[in-house]
Each structure stands twice: as structure tokens, then as C-alpha cells.
Amino acid sequence: MLRAAGVQFTVAVATIDETSILESLAAEKAKPRDAADLLAEMKALKVSAMHPGALVVGADQILSLGAKFFAKPGTLGAARKQLQELRGQTHHLTSAAVVARDGIAIWREVGEAKLAMRPFSDAFLDDYLKKAGSSVLTSVGGYQIEGLGAQLFSRIDGDHFTILGLPLLPLLDMLRTQGVLEA
Description:
The chain has 183 residues and is an alpha+beta fold. The protein has helices at 18-27, 32-50, 76-86, 122-132, 160-164, 168-177; strands spanning 56-65, 68-70, 90-101, 104-117, 153-157. It has a five-stranded antiparallel β-sheet, sandwiched between helices. A hairpin with a 2-residue loop joins strand 1 and strand 2 (68-70). It is globular, with a radius of gyration of 17 Å. The protein starts with 17 loop residues before the first helix and ends in a 6-residue tail after the last helix.
């Protein structure tokens, strides 16, 4: 998304145990926005400490259905099970971005979208997974709304970029205020 928006950047992976942290936050009944924000902040701070003076963006996305958090499915079987659980339900995608400099968070934004997944048959689901293939494993929802996954939904309320995993427009505004992008 950043590249498509004309932002030049380099990638540095923050090695944090997202699964354990997410499980702990779910056990504590943390709100999805707090969980997404904390994970984004942890990533930004970890990388920022290794790159003095740089603006570092950390981001994360949480899918929640009621009090339950979902992670990226690890297999097509797990994706099938997850999509069966989401089918006919309305879930939320919460995307957070935190910008850090010199190990200090200096900006944050959390966006939320509400997605109503339509009821669909197991035959439709099997066909969807066959056509989509392993690409469903790269998304926390087991779908990619910008492609074939759009057919899974009856209604979507929220910012397109938040659904894709990053509150992009507020982040671009922040980068303009920091002089990274032209105003």
C-alpha cells in the first residue's frame, strides 16, 4: 500500500511472538483496538531501537468476532474452518499503525471496519478455496477482499485501507507533517 501510494521505504522485520501476545491479550479480554495498537507499537519500537533517527512504522491487524480473535490460518483446512465460523456473521477488522523514532512512539492511529459475511454453502466455500488457493493464508480473515474474497460478503462498512491492514490516509497525513512527503 505504501509503495502504491508513492512512499519510499525499507522493510525491517520485528521479531516478536505475535501468537503468544495475541493469546495473552485475548485471555485478558483486551479490546481488539487495544490489541492491534499494542502489537503495532511493539513492532515499531523494536525496529526503531535498531535504526536511530529513522521514522519507523509498525502495523498490525486484528480480526474479531465477538470476544474471539482470529489469526492468519496456517493451512487451507484451518482457513476453511475459520470461514465456516465467520459465515453468516458480522466481524470486525481493526488495523493499527504506530510511528516511532528513537525507540519512542510519536504517533498512532487505529481504524475499524465491520464486515458482514453472507451465508454460503460448503460447496461454494470449497470452490472458493480451490480457486483462491494458498493466497488465503496471507490474510488474517482467510480472504482477500480486493479479489475473489469479495464474493464472501453482503455488506462492508469501513475504510478500504483499514480492511487491507493499514490506516493509510491518516498515516500519509502524518508523513506529510514530518516532512517525509510533500505537503
